[in-house]
Amino acid sequence: MEVNAVSSAKLTKIISEDKEYLFQNYGERLPVAFIKGDGSYLYDQDNRKYIDLFSGIAVSALGYSHPAFQKAIHGQVDRIIHSSNWFLNPEQIEAAKLISESSFPGKTLFVNSGTEANEAAIKLARRYGLGINKRKYKIVTFTGSFNGRTFGAMSATAQEKIREGFGPVVPGFIYVPFNDKKAFRKVMRGSKNIAAVMLELIQGEGGINVADQDFVREVFDTCNQNGVLTIVDEVQTGIGRTGKTFVHQHFGVTPDVLTLAKGLAGGVPVGAIHAKNFLTEFLPRGTHGTTFGGNHLACAAAAAVLKEIKKKQFSAGVTSASEYIFDRLKKTMQKTRFIKGLRGIGLLIGIELAEEGFDLVKEALAEYLVINCTAGNIIRIMPPLNI
Ligand SMILES: Cc1ncc(COP(=O)(O)O)c(C=O)c1O
Fold this sequence. Notes:
The chain has 387 residues and is α/β, with parallel strands linked by helices.
């Protein structure tokens, strides 16, 4: 990265003020401040152009400055941003309708993030189970999962490093090895006390671990036969990321509850829980709520994204971009021992390296390419969906 004296002074100031004024809970940030975007390109503090293969952790689904998306949010900002959930909200209704049409008939509750969507799903599952018997409150999750950082979502997350140092977590979660049918079957013998199974069909933060088709079949059949709810966390996999609107559609299963966030409103903060109709009675008046959740702006943005990804040529674009990237990666893989494996679906791609990957992220950035590394050695490629 050629950095001239003026730009480096500007960057040095930003870095020093970051340290002075902000919590350092992300460790050292990558030394770039993006100030604008266009399509799949980002521009830094000195107007240098980068190719974005990260989309802000799978958030900027339509890239940057997308005309229909911009128009929808500009229009909404000019009319009204927020009124609260005490009032009817046509933008919420429109976004919820689009979610129902593209997943399964049901009702949607809007919140502010993926974590919060999972909190709502956990609360709903507990009330559902406890309505059947007073010990039916347990929730099964799988090793390598990531569901968020609040106490409930963190307790659901079956990765010790996420829970470390916080003392007792929320009880009632059972962690089962991912993709292990035998272990799952064993745990489900106690299913009369299990309210729900919650899973990602591709574990994103856990390293782009794709669920086996027969494992998913086993989970859904067992849950459906035993009155155990299925909750699919599609915070990272949803909203067109895999070439279908939702990853569960690749597996031929329909969950009882779907949790969403990230790409849902293309960068405007929003989360959602979408549940089959019979479940909505378990979160009646007074049991859950949020001040900001699903405000006019967030839902106008969500509706704009959902309308765009519904278009046939949109998902065809995701699939062909995915094929292109996988094809190039496979060819590269044959020429190097540095890549140990490739995995993922659509534009959620993991490149398993033979060593830790964070230095590669920094090297790529110096070549004006934005990528990410998760789980130590997995390079994560998740560009804007219309790249
Ligand atoms: C699968 C999954 N669930 C939940 C979350 C938490 O979402 P948020 O960061 O919006 O709270 C994430 C975030 O990475 C995620 O990947």
